[in-house]
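Q: I'm building a small set of examples for a reading group on sequence design. Run inverse folding on the following structure and report the sequence directly after it, with nothing in between.
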């Protein structure tokens, strides 16, 4: 009898799923007809608006910094499939606040090309499949299901399929058979299983299709694009070619290979990616800066242990909480090291580093380690009586409210992040100079630091030694003591 009832229940479950899948086909077909998907092979649209730099806010309580999209043109070939964006960015934060290549002087052209192939990363493909028409095409091909939901008093048919990363992709179809929102989750080295949303509104007829004239994309809860569409061409002839040489979406994975240099007795510079410094204290290793990814963080730890054998890494100093300077901290969490950062960053890093990383589990997720974060104030000295490193906070520093410098008084070496990012040795200094660089020189003067060598975390591509003279060249004056 039990076996009979289990069989009946199993058949019932299959029939419910089958009805859901069948209903999804009907819902997707109705929305596709209303939006003109069946006859839409390509689209090209132009817009203006804003883009925002993910993870580059001036503090943990602010949205991502804004840039102006002076122009934005995107072409999508849904059948190939492929996408190309050509846009021109302008400075949007005045005065500059936060990162993301600020300040932009003049116009900054940006292009992005995605041609979907078998090895194209899923987050890149989503640039096509999260568009309303792309979503319906993907839902048709991926055995979608549907569920009725009421959200804030509005009724939706929520169509769901599973992406290549095993995360759900949900499309919210309103009572006009138009897509209001698409959401999914993608892996991020700092934010873990990160919510990615696209919100569509103000639909207008464009030939045989319905197309939104307002698009907002969000990642990790804040906008990354806010576009107002001015022109739409459906089934326009689009010719999307692979970018020549370097360029296009994605790019190479962050460097994990390391090289090292002795800066002084028990003080080692680790390069090969974002620069780090390892310090040989009496009974442990302290590392300043862990880089832009878990892979880089793990490589830095390994190199530090090679240089300083038989000692644990117990302290990792974080200069500031921007995504490219904190994504390596998950490796420190896995190691069981304490993260030392300015007090402005403590709560933010505690929360962020504890987020789940289930889509692509890293070592911290695998071993269940929890972050340990301690706060530094205006000045903190780390010493074992022999070696000394001073941590100095930079107040009123536009790039980040919680920025720390690491100064080695015996070696007269200063590690800094994002205040001065060296360009080619023969590059012409900008006019006017970056306010971030001016601020760094002023703080060196204020703190009366005797600096002979500067270690920029964004290390120069030619691996040259950066001096105070080079730094001051970029603002046209030297500090006075």
């Amino acid at each position: 009898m039990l076996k009979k009832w289990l069989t009946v229940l199993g058949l019932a479950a299959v029939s419910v799923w089958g009805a859901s899948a069948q209903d999804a086909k009907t819902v997707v077909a109705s929305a596709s007809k209303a939006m003109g998907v069946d006859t839409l092979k390509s689209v090209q649209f132009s817009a203006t608006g804003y883009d925002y730099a993910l993870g580059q806010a001036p503090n943990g309580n602010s949205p991502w910094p804004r840039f102006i999209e002076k122009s934005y043109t995107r072409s999508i070939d849904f059948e190939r499939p492929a996408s190309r964006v050509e846009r021109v960015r302008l400075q949007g934060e005045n005065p500059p606040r936060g990162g993301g290549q600020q300040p932009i002087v003049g116009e900054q052209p940006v292009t992005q090309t995605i041609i979907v192939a078998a090895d194209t990363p899923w987050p890149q493909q989503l640039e096509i499949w999260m568009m309303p028409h792309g979503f319906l095409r993907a839902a048709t091909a991926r055995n979608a299901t549907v569920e009725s939901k009421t959200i804030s008093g509005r009724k939706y048919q929520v169509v769901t399929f599973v992406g290549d990363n095993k995360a759900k992709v949900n499309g919210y179809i309103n009572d006009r058979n138009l897509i209001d929102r698409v959401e999914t989750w993608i892996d991020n080295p700092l934010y873990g299983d990160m919510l990615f949303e696209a919100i569509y509104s103000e639909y207008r007829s464009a030939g045989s299709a319905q197309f939104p004239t307002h698009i907002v994309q969000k990642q990790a809860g804040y906008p990354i694009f806010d576009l107002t569409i001015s022109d739409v061409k459906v089934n326009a002839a689009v010719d999307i070619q692979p970018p020549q040489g370097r360029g296009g979406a994605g790019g190479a994975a962050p460097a994990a290979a390391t090289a090292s240099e002795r800066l002084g007795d028990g003080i080692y510079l680790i390069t090969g990616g974002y620069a780090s410094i390892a310090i040989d204290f009496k009974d442990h290793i302290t590392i300043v800066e862990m880089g832009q990814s878990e892979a880089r963080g793990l490589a830095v730890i390994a190199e530090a242990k090679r240089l300083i054998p038989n000692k644990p890494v117990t302290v990792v100093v974080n200069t500031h909480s921007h995504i490219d300077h904190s994504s390596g901290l998950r490796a420190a969490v896995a190691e069981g090291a304490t993260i030392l950062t300015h007090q402005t960053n403590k709560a933010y890093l505690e929360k962020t580093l504890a987020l789940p990383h289930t889509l692509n589990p890293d070592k911290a997720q695998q071993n269940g380690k929890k972050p340990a974060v301690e706060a530094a104030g205006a000045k903190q000295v780390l010493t074992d009586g022999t070696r000394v490193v001073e941590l100095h906070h930079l107040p009123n520093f536009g790039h980040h409210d919680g920025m720390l410098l690491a100064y080695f008084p015996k070696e007269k070496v200063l590690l800094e992040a994002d205040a001065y990012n060296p360009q080619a040795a023969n590059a012409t200094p900008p006019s006017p100079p970056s306010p971030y660089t001016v601020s760094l020189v002023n703080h060196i003067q204020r703190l009366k630091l005797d600096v002979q060598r500067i270690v920029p975390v964004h290390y120069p591509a030619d691996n040259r030694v950066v001096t105070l003279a080079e730094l001051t060249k970029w603002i046209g004056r030297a500090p006075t003591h």
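The first strand starts at residue 42 and ends at 52.
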